[in-house]
């Protein structure tokens, strides 16, 4: 199985959850998600290159697409994208609803 095939499974689940969050009453704040994605992808690029460069992580080249950012395979960035979309989506879907604070006797 290639890394893209593995990523596709996770990204499909993330896509479904993000669509549900977008359609909810509270919705996602896509500008904030985009800013967080930019920062997280930049950090991923820096630290993945460092970890690969010092030999902490290695990849089987047969399972890579051949596209790289520095020495980090592009497939590595899918997890950052998944996290930056999935976590806010879950926050929206599972977060407190308006009026919940009053019901708890706060």
From TrEMBL:
Source species, domain of life: Bacteria
Keyword Nucleotide-binding assigned to the entry: answer is no
Membrane topology reported for the UniProt record = Multi-pass membrane protein
* One Pfam family hit: Lycopene_cyc
Query: Transmembrane segments in this chain: where?
Result: 6-23, 35-57, 77-94
One GO biological process this protein is involved in is: carotenoid biosynthetic process
NCBIfam families according to UniProt: CarR_dom_SF
Q: What is this protein called?
A: Lycopene cyclase domain-containing protein
């Amino acid at each position: 199985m290639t890394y893209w095939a593995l990523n596709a499974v996770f990204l499909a689940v993330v896509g479904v959850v993000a669509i549900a969050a977008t359609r909810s009453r509270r919705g996602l704040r896509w500008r904030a998600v985009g800013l967080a994605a930019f920062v997280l992808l930049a950090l991923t690029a820096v630290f993945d290159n460092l970890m690969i460069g010092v030999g902490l992580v290695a990849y089987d080249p047969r399972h890579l697409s051949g596209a790289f950012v520095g020495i980090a395979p592009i497939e590595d960035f899918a997890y950052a994208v998944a996290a930056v979309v999935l976590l806010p989506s879950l926050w929206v879907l599972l977060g407190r609803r308006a009026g919940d604070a009053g019901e708890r006797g706060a």
